[in-house]
Amino acid sequence: MEHQPHLLKLADEWAPTFKMLGDRTRLRLLIALHYHGPGEATVSELADIVGVTLPTASAALQLLADNGVVESFKEGRVTRYKLVDATTHTLLHHLGGTHRH
User: Fold this and answer.
1) From which residue to which does any coiled coil extend (predicted)?
2) Res. 101: pLDDT tops 70
3) Helices H, strands E: what count in the chain?
4) Which is it for strands 41-42 and 70-75: parallel, antiparallel or unpaired?
């Protein structure tokens, strides 16, 4: 293959996204969150959907938040999550991820 710098740059740009999605729990949480729509799911709801413990879901969501993939926001005493990274959102659609509505 001839040296294609734009393809190498593309790989470098996508690598962090694939690293985030490379973990089964994080990917499952993102797919569940994507399906429910922005701000529609709490950490406990997502943990139940995905079948992990609350601390596991919380740690995974915090890592996703630290990397700018999701954001959390308070609604009273409840914390809800929303997917904010457009690249990840697009990729989830390419993977076949759908929205509830």
Assistant:
1) none
2) no
3) 5, 3
4) unpaired
